[in-house]
């Protein structure tokens, strides 16, 4: 194992997905293939060790100290998964130990009890145990003693590598969960058996062979007992265990280093973003903080999953008027609001809608954040024509129906429309016209799960004659003097979402808004020219986020490939010995 090479280049791939976990798997895989430590020509061949194990097992059976072993099919040529070094031998767990051993002791003896949660998944982690009286735990449980090796046989514990060498048991023995296979080794290092049980070859081969229902699959006793077991000479087993322990300690150090590095980077990124959320920052200092965050946050991000935080900050800056400068020559938003109110009245009449009782007037203190003096805070009801959609399952007259495409909640995502599946619905011909979407309509979801509450996207006329269902609100601008994408930016921002979360009717894990609550939603309204500047800047910065996300994703894939190459180069025996395909 060339650890110097690994340490020299590890930083290049340290942020690869599951880098340390994959390194651990690779170490275990090399260990059971005879490629982790060099072979010693003076070692006694594993074939001789098997002869001593066979003799000892016969002695124990004859002395009544062990049950006569159950016979399992011998390994066939096609069962051998890979070649072994010359002094190794292919064997089986059933051949190198006693399966399902039993313990005997007085009922009032204190012994260990080990339930499944106390069986570790990590290599090198010790099992924990409770102390109980033997009379209480000797029946109905699995027996084991110090030095026995246990394998969790139920899903998902087996897939996660739950297995252990039992040590430091009270009185040297105990019992525990019935979901364990147990072997008591004879002249074989129990830690080497554990390495085999945690190795990718054993687990990955065993998963497809598990039996039972989807939620309760188990590793059969036959697979545990009779699957191929690569047996090295006893002296080499000890060298392998020592090397695995050394390398796993190195993995622990690498893992701790990575965790510390990520924690530092996360704190720096979080601090940069947090400075942008101060309630009343100094304008000059705020601009400096914003410039720093937008310029350097990419350098502080090493994973694609960190980019959403940057997106949230961009939207937050936008809705507080901090993303682009205000232009004194812009027409005040108050004049724009007057025209929008008139256009809304005309739109109501054109669509044949009845006037509604006005919602409570809003003031500048309505929203819990600062915004420019030239902005206004109307309610949605002051500006938009808001309707709910068509209700499914209506009884329709045979001669007055038409099938049209319609949008469901699943189609309206936060900031975009997912039109991969657009279903159709049969409605009255009048409803097909009444609920038909127009270019620039703002679509908002009523709720359900928390992530669906107030999700907003803009309709760009992607599907002809499309309508919307009643769990999707249509918020229609009355004229082109309001940018629908500005509204989408606000409602999908932290501040916009906060309104819906506070106003929503809530039950366990569910939340929804009704028409009244949506009509009362406050809307920060910049001058129209500034709306366009904000939308353009958000689009520009979101494109940069897309590029950053793609770059980080590609970098993760590259680091993953480099990791594989590095492992195969660095984690390899320095003096590989000859190999043999069959047991001696």
From TrEMBL:
<keyword id="KW-0378">Hydrolase</keyword>
<keyword id="KW-0540">Nuclease</keyword>
<dbReference type="InterPro" id="IPR044946">
    <property type="entry name" value="Restrct_endonuc_typeI_TRD_sf"/>
</dbReference>
<protein>
    <submittedName>
        <fullName>Restriction endonuclease subunit S</fullName>
        <ecNumber>3.1.21.-</ecNumber>
    </submittedName>
</protein>
<keyword id="KW-0680">Restriction system</keyword>
<comment type="similarity">
    <text>Belongs to the type-I restriction system S methylase family.</text>
</comment>
<dbReference type="InterPro" id="IPR000055">
    <property type="entry name" value="Restrct_endonuc_typeI_TRD"/>
</dbReference>
<keyword id="KW-0238">DNA-binding</keyword>
<dbReference type="GO" id="GO:0016787">
    <property type="term" value="F:hydrolase activity"/>
</dbReference>
<dbReference type="GO" id="GO:0004519">
    <property type="term" value="F:endonuclease activity"/>
</dbReference>
<dbReference type="InterPro" id="IPR051212">
    <property type="entry name" value="Type-I_RE_S_subunit"/>
</dbReference>
<feature type="domain" description="Type I restriction modification DNA specificity">
    <location>
        <begin position="373"/>
        <end position="551"/>
    </location>
</feature>
<comment type="subunit">
    <text>The methyltransferase is composed of M and S polypeptides.</text>
</comment>
<dbReference type="Pfam" id="PF01420">
    <property type="entry name" value="Methylase_S"/>
</dbReference>
<keyword id="KW-0255">Endonuclease</keyword>
